[in-house]
Amino acid sequence: MGENQWIVKDGVLTSPKSGANLISDQKFTDFKLHVEFRYQKGSNSGVYLRGRHEVQIEDSSKDQHPSSVLFSGIYGFLTPSEINALGPNTWQTFDITLIGRMVTVVVNGKTVITNQEIPGITGGALDSNEGEPGPIYIQGDHGPIEFKKIVITPAK
Fold first, then answer.
1. Which residues, other chains included, contact 88 with Cβ-Cβ below 8 Å and sequence gap of 6+?
2. CATH tag, 7-154
3. Over 80: is that where the pLDDT of 156 sits?
4. pLDDT single digits (tens) 107-131
5. What is the SS3 assignment for the chain?
6. What is the domain partition of the chain in residue ranges?
7. Which of 23, 105, 92 lies closest to 58, judged by CA?
């Protein structure tokens, strides 16, 4: 793990360069997660659900063929229906619902993954205990990324 490069400035959580990942102390089971983020051209990050399944944040263009390793994919497993990215240097949103292994991903207001089963853990996972609660983990080791809102709500 790299050196802690994360800073908060004007209410924005920023990783200005590659370094450490952020991992929440609290662990979660089933939840809804809202994140607002902005990346620079060519940057790459991600949000790990329960510390095990990465939702990819990556500078992908709308005209690229969707893939699990591009913007809004569940890395290595689930491909979004389209790349609904707004491009670099623009605030964007993910609204993610995770119930058991079933995930829905809404990107900038458009559903791109609908209640699909995540079949396994992403390469960078903290552990392989898929049935257990886990943290939210934000990737900071692949380039600059900013977050201005992260809200997690337990699912009922």
1. 38, 39, 40, 41, 42, 43, 59
2. 2.60.120.560
3. no
4. 999 999 999 999 999 989 999 999 8
5. CCCCCCEEECCEEEECCCCCCEECCCCECCEEEEEEEEECCCCEEEEEECCCEEEEEECCCCCCCCCCCCCCCECCCECCCCCCCCCCCCCEEEEEEEECCEEEEEECCEEEEEEEECCCCCCCCCCCCCCCCECCEECCCCCCEEEEEEEEEECC
6. 7-154
7. 92
